């Protein structure tokens, strides 16, 4: 198991391997009592007028993360 900083995830694109879509930038992470990541929260949609959030955030369980690469994180998310 590779150890990395959460800040490293913020520099990567999250891509759904099922349809090739970019899912958005990371907004937050959920961790358990042992400090292990259980889910990532991706910022949903774009901003209206560049100010107001538009769309719901997307929560991806860590079990759906398939590969962490240099530039991207590949996830297998059926309902996004």
Overall description:
This is Sporulation protein, YlmC/YmxH family. It comes from Ammonifex degensii (strain DSM 10501 / KC4). Pfam families: PRC (PF05239). InterPro entries: PRC-brl_dom, PRC_barrel-like_sf, Spore_YlmC/YmxH. The chain is mostly beta strands and 80 residues long. The protein has a single domain, classed as SH3 type barrels, CATH 2.30.30.240. It has one helix and eight strands, in the order αββββββββ. The chain has a three-stranded mixed beta sheet with strand order 1-8-7, with no helix packed on it. Strand 7 and strand 8 form a beta hairpin.
Keywords:
single chain, 80 residues, mainly beta, SH3 type barrels, three-stranded mixed sheet, three-stranded antiparallel sheet, 1 helix, 8 strands, 5% helix, globular
Global mean pLDDT: 85
Sheet with the most strands? Answer: 3 strands, mixed
Helix amount:
under 10%
Quickly give the structural class.
mainly beta
Strand line-up across the major sheet: 1-8-7
Provide the CATH top-level class: Mainly Beta
CATH homology-level superfamily: PRC-barrel domain
Give the count of structural domains.
1
**What count of helical segments does DSSP give?**
1
CATH fold title:
SH3 type barrels
Gross CATH architecture: Roll
Give a brief outline of the structure.
The protein is mainly β. The chain has one helix and eight strands; from the N terminus they run αββββββββ. The radius of gyration is 13 Å and the shape is globular.
Task: Compile the SSE list and pairings.
Elements: H1 6-9, E1 13-16, E2 26-31, E3 37-42, E4 47-48, E5 52-53, E6 58-61, E7 65-68, E8 72-75
Parallel strand pairs: 1-8
Antiparallel strand pairs: 2-3, 3-6, 4-5, 7-8
């Amino acid at each position: 198991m590779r150890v990395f900083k959460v800040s490293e995830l913020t520099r990567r694109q999250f891509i759904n391997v099922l349809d090739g879509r970019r899912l958005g930038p990371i907004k937050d992470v959920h961790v358990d009592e042992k400090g292990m990541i259980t889910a990532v929260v991706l910022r949903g949609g774009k901003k209206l007028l560049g100010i107001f959030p538009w769309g719901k955030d997307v929560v991806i369980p860590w079990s759906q993360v398939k590969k962490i690469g240099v530039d991207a994180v590949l996830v297998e998310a059926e309902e996004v």
